[in-house]
Design brief:
The protein has two domains: about 1-160, no CATH class; about 160-303, no CATH class. The longest helix is centred in the N-terminal third of the chain and has 26 residues, at about 30-55. It starts with a helix and ends with a strand. The strands form two sheets. It has a six-stranded antiparallel β-sheet. It contains eight helices and eight strands; from the N terminus they run H-H-H-H-H-E-H-H-E-E-E-E-E-H-E-E. Strand 4 (about 235-240) and strand 5 (about 245-250) form a beta hairpin. It has helices at about 1-20, 30-55, 80-100, 105-130, 135-155, 180, 185-190, 270-280; strands at about 160-170, 195-200, 220-225, 235-240, 245-250, 250-260, 285-290, 295-300. It is of the alpha+beta class.
Length: about 300
């Protein structure tokens, strides 16, 4: 989760730029000044953030020669879902900026793909020289899958029929390993995989030719999460609580729910479009079915 926190900081810088520019009308044709400005800003943030992380974050860890590290089995792949989600929305942000600059949607999708995959791979290269971690092919693979998911839809249709979202709640498990799972609201949200859920959200009627009475903004959503996992390798973790011993054995969770596609809500207001675009990265709480441990459970409202 360490890299996701750093990504979010960078996203804040780029996102604020893109959101501020969203108030302006996108160029009807290629606007060289905007394109140069967006490219220069992106390159500066790429280089600047890499140098900052190298000397501020990574300098606190023991160095090693370039090496590989297989972490594909850890945390029941929840961290890989984080890479997928991150790369999807990073590509979306770059795509928005270049379309605002007047670049046609096919070219902006290709630029977004190169920028997203290249930038996130930079972090893997930095990890490769860190003794505690290493270059992870599985991380790179999920970065590629996430980038391709967004950019393929953007290139072919200039629209996202399938969107990927995130939700989080307090699992109550962080208190047993606060150094790993977080010791406050912000750190728990980012580090406690047990409280996170990643969602694939879509409207199945997009693929039908007939008009549907179901609103276009109402989506079906499939979710994935884990629970009772306090160590990365997935083994049982035992906690001594007074005279009692608590045993935690991790398991996977699968969800079926509804969701709202805010960008499908009709509006002419540029301000509302901005708000809807920002909200669309988060899954809206709805009644939800959970399947886990061979049991079906109903949640009246699931975050």
């Amino acid at each position: 989760m360490r890299k996701h926190l750093l990504f979010l900081i960078i996203f804040g810088c780029l996102g604020n730029l893109g959101h501020a520019q969203s108030f302006l009308t996108p160029a009807d044709s290629l606007n060289k000044k905007r394109t140069i400005g967006v490219t220069a800003t992106g390159a500066s943030l790429w280089i600047g953030s890499t140098l900052a992380l190298q000397y501020v974050w990574y300098s606190g860890f023991e160095k090693s020669k370039f090496h590989f590290f297989d972490d594909s089995h850890e945390w029941n792949q929840m961290d890989k879902m984080g890479h997928f989600y991150t790369s999807t929305h990073f590509a979306a942000m770059v795509d928005d900026l270049y379309k605002w600059s007047g670049v046609n949607h096919k070219h902006s999708a290709l630029i977004a793909a190169g920028y997203s995959f290249g930038y996130l791979t930079t972090f893997e290269i930095l990890d490769a020289y860190n003794a505690a971690w290493g270059f992870s092919w599985s991380d790179v693979g999920f970065n590629a899958f996430g980038t391709a998911s967004y950019c393929t839809q953007a290139y072919l249709w200039d629209e996202q029929f399938v969107q990927f979202k995130f939700s989080a709640r307090n699992s109550g498990l962080a208190e047993y390993r606060p150094n790993v799972l977080g010791n406050d609201f912000a750190s728990r949200t980012l580090k406690d995989y047990n409280g996170q859920t990643y969602w694939m959200s879509f409207n199945p009627f997009h693929w039908t030719k007939k008009e549907s009475k179901v609103p276009k903004w109402l989506n079906l959503s499939l979710g994935y999460g884990i629970n009772d996992q306090l160590i990365g390798d997935g083994g049982t973790y035992i906690v001594t609580d007074g005279n009692n011993q608590l045993s935690f054995t991790p398991y996977r969770q699968y969800y079926l729910s509804l969701d709202i596609d805010f960008q499908a809500i009709p509006t002419q207001s540029r301000l509302l479009k901005l708000v809807f675009r920002s909200l669309n990265i988060i899954k809206v709480p709805f009644p939800t079915l959970e399947f886990s441990q061979n049991k079906l459970k109903f949640h009246p409202l699931y975050f």
